[in-house]
Automatic annotation (TrEMBL), chain A:
The keyword Kinase does not apply. It is found in: Cell inner membrane; Cell membrane. It comes from the Bacteria. Residues 497-512 have a biased composition (Basic and acidic residues). Residues 7-243, 253-499 form the ABC transporter domain. It comes from Candidatus Dormiibacter inghamiae. GO terms for molecular function: ATP binding; ATP hydrolysis activity. Residues 497-531 are annotated as: Disordered. GO terms for cellular component: plasma membrane. This is Sugar ABC transporter ATP-binding protein. The keyword Nucleotide-binding applies. It is a peripheral membrane protein. The lineage of its organism: Bacteria, Bacillati, Candidatus Dormiibacterota, Candidatus Dormibacteria, Candidatus Dormibacterales. Residues 514-531 have a biased composition (Polar residues).
TrEMBL record, chain B:
This is ABC transporter permease. It is a multi-pass membrane protein. One of its GO terms (molecular function) is transmembrane transporter activity. The chain crosses the membrane at residues 27-44, 56-79, 86-103, 109-129, 136-160, 180-198, 229-248, 260-277. InterPro entries: ABC_transp_permease. Keywords: Cell membrane, Membrane, Transmembrane, Transmembrane helix. The keyword Transmembrane applies. It holds the Pfam family BPD_transp_2. It comes from the Bacteria. It is found in: Cell membrane. PANTHER family: ABC TRANSPORTER PERMEASE PROTEIN YPHD-RELATED-RELATED, RIBOSE IMPORT PERMEASE PROTEIN RBSC. GO terms for cellular component: plasma membrane.
Amino acid sequence: MTMTPLLQVQGVTKSFPGVKALSNVHLDLRPGEVLALAGENGAGKSTLMKLLSGIYTADEGEFYLNGEKLEVASPKHAQELGIAIIHQDFNLIPDLTVAQNIFVGREPRWAHTFLNERALNVKAQELIERLQLPLDPKQNVGALTVAKQQMVEIAKALSYEAEVLIMDEPTAALNDAEVATLHELIRRFIRPNTGVIYISHRMNELKVISDRVTVIRDGQYVDTLDVQTTSMKEVIALMVGRSITSDATPVGVRDDREVLLSVSGLNTKDRLKDVSFDLRKGEILGFAGLMGAGRTEVARAIVGADGIESGTITLRGKQISIRNPAEAAKHRIGYLSEDRKRYGLLLEQDVGANIVLSAVSELYAAWGFLKSKSMRATAARYVKTLRIKTPSINQMTKNLSGGNQQKVVIAKWLVKDCDILIFDEPTRGIDVGAKEEIYVLLNELAAQGKSIIMISSELPEVLRMSHRVVVMTEGRVAGILTADEATQESVMHYATLRDDERPGDPAERDSFETEQASPTDVNSDQTAGKR
Amino acid sequence: MTASGVVTEKPISRDLASTIRGRLQQFLAFGGLIVIFVFFSLASPDFLTFSNVTSMLFSTVVIGTLAIGTTFVIITAGIDLSIGTGMSLCAVMAGVFIVHWHIPLPIGVPLAILFGGVIGLINGFNVAILKIPPFIATLAMMLAAQGLALVISHSAPIYFDTVPAYAAISTGNLIPGVKFPNAVIVLAAVAIIAAIILNKTVLGRYTYSIGSNAEATALSGINVRKWQIIIYAFAGLFIGLASVLISARLGSAQPALGQGYELQAIAAVVIGGTSLFGGKGSILGTVIGALIISLLNNGLQIMSVPQEWQNVVLGAVILAAVYTDNIRRRKAAM
């Protein structure tokens, strides 16, 4: 028997300059079901959501709601059509109350002009009772916990009588009890004429809440599986199972290198929990994990950009305390942010000024006066050796391409002669050719004896570059793998571990060992067959 | 690998073009200056007289000195509202040091200038360490400085009659044969020194860096807080210097002499093409801006335009200057 899908996505393609974000993707949401949508970072899930909410328009393809063609003009239009989307970042106004937030833009009024606060609160109270949420309409949203803020978002979404509810990573910031409450809420929402699309990285959650799971990878549809008859390992294999374009493997992997930097028991107030690892001389240490796993926070804590609560950092056997990035630079530790434009570059200044920036007072000044000539010579030299494509060192940095901007940031830290370089997403927003150049450069730097921490959300990148891989999840280190042990499956496995199933649990440990013993198991073949 | 990274001929001309485009605001301001100057010369026979030009230059000296210091602060994406009343307070302190305490000029004058530095230092501390937004921190200082100036002077002017040499700092002719008063020469010297500091020293480089992107500068290993304090304190020295120049000219330290100067100085900086968003600006532009403002003030006065309308004109000029800058920026972005 075939029933009309509640929501149907057919052959949808969406390109951005230089990237094909979605290519011929299809998806069916049946009435009365929870459909999980799984895929790695950058697989195209968010793009799909934005198409459904009318933020983007598809290049090709169609959407159908209850069999009727759907043209979504704007997020507001989507809500009116009965599609409610709860984004990962909430769209709430912290200084307004729960009721004011739920009905923002639709406030009940007197004489079309004056706000009717009482009617607003009554309406909100009715909605909250209908959804059985533990909320007070008159409370300020800013004072609520993340879980309750999310309930406000859900109430807001459902106040439009939604048929389709789409949730993007709804449990990213929730604890187990809150996750259970959320799932309860989803079950109450589900009726024969409604459906939920549930996007999550967390495999065990998908198992609990969803009926089917659709996997997308690199912007393409992979498969849709019945959750009850599918192991989550299979889903992971489908998520990551792309063939790596290049056969490159880490170079210069050795285990006899001396430890240069040792981080032990690092805790921060809001994110990191007991993070410990060693960085060896001349090593590329990959940091893998899903978005929000705390990798950037580790980097920022090491260089003193954010404060730490407890834990020690030892450099060359001596414990050091780094209070700000200036002190980190004195210890020859450089941090290259994932957000180059915001944290890495002076976009309105020229290339030369950017390259020498971190070394100005140390190397290029006498009595406070700049040594312009030697500064310019150095900048020109690095432009040449790193093959930065720029008409001259006087070019404004904002006019360079992403890859060349990244090289400018790298040059800045090479001028400073750093021993430890922390690269956060070194190839984000960089085209394929330039990526290769950055990889070559990283390998050269490691070969010269520089120690590199490479944070990356691209698994193939982590696997081809890293001598060892630290996998993080939820602010802690879930596992440290050698280059041999690290496979797409093993890394993903650690990256999706929840707090309650850490490797310390004996029952779980068995399954880990099996997995590591045969890192490329049956699933890879299965994946290969499907491609 | 010779093709990449090597500077070729054609891009150099493109560089030159972009330099000119970057300086366009200055050219426009300079053009505006000439136009206004010619206009007043033709409109009023009293304008182009030696005594009037001298008096106009005097007012440029005060606005210009304050504006040059403020240029540094504004390039860091900060603001300093305390320069006007800070100048009042410094002038009063100069009176206290020199008239009341009989401190000799060679020590008393530098003390007054350093006092301006202290005002800037406090502003810098409040902005960099206490993280108070510059607008608020310097607004508070503006009020406090005015109050202190009145308290210390008992709301009465302090006259420098007993120290005739003091007045010569501004009105004397240091260089024989040059008829322009010392104050004008001081402004010229200050402008040149400030331009060198802004373009050729670490302090100048970090001023631009912090204004372009303070976060990136901090992550590049530069102690941004320290440099912010230094820059505000440095800018404060100009408050002190301006206070000496104005009180020497007036022959007295009046506790409210600086009121209104903060806005004129900031206007001069903005007309000169310095971006309130930080990262961009020049001393030359600021000097041109200061000239435009004192030219307008003076010319309109000579043409008997009431003070109220002078302010309206000044407001319109500021809007026009910033609007042309916005258009230029939007074009450059395309």
